[in-house]
Fold this protein.
Amino acid sequence: MDSLQDPCNLESSGDARRDRILDPGTCSSSSNTGYRLFDRQRTIHQIIGGGKAADVILWKQQHVSCGIIIVATVAWLLFEYSGLSFLSICSDVFLILIVYQFLRANYAAFVNKQVRPLPELELSEELVNSAAASFRVKINHMLLMAHDITLGKDFRLFFKVVACLWLLSVVGGLFSFFTLAYIGTIVSITIPALYSRYDEHVDRYAGFLHQKFSKHYRTVDENVISRLPRSLSKDKDT
C-alpha cells in the first residue's frame, strides 16, 4: 500500500532530500516563526496566567474591564484634584462601605429578608508562603547587587544602576505617584488586549526596532561599557 511522504519528515531517501533542497521554505516555514516580542512561546492569555484575570485584561469581559477603567479614572481625579490626602480618602471610602453593609444587614433582618452571604476574606497559608518565598528571592538578589556596588566590586553594574535610578528620578519629577499608578493601570488594561489583537504587526515592527537597538547597544557596549573596569580597586602584590 502506497503511503504519502511528508517533505518535512527526516527520511534518508534521496527523493525526500531532493524535495527539501528544492523547497527549503516548506520545512522552515513551520519552525521559523520570526521575531516575537519578549521571545514569547505562549499566547498572551497563557502568559498573563489564564483564568478570569486574564479574561478581564484581554477584554473578554468588557463590562468588568470598562468598570476598572472608570473606577481608576474616578480615583485618580479624587486623589489629584480633591485636595484630600490619601489616608482621608481611604478612610472615607471604608467608612461608607462599612456603614452601608451594616445598615443593609439590619434592614434585611428587620423586614425578614435573606441577605446574600459575603465571601470569607482569608489568605491561605500556601499563598502566603509562596508569595513570601518569591519576595525573599528577589530581595536577596537586590541586596547582593547592593553589596557588590557598595564594595566597588562591579563598576559596570554601578553605572547601570545609577543610570536607571536617574531615569526614575526624572520620570518621578514629571508625574506624581498617583498619576504613575493611574498610567500603569490604564496601560495594563489596554496594551495586552491591543497586542493580542495586532500581535503580528507589532512583532514585525518590534523585530525591526530590536535589530536597530541591538546594533546601537553593541556599539555603546564595545566603546563605553566594555572599557569600564569591573572594579576600581586593583590588587597589589604583597
Summary: Residues 125-150 form the longest helix (26 residues). Confidence is low (pLDDT under 50) at residues 1-33, 234-238. Residues 217 and 225 are 10 Å apart (CA to CA).
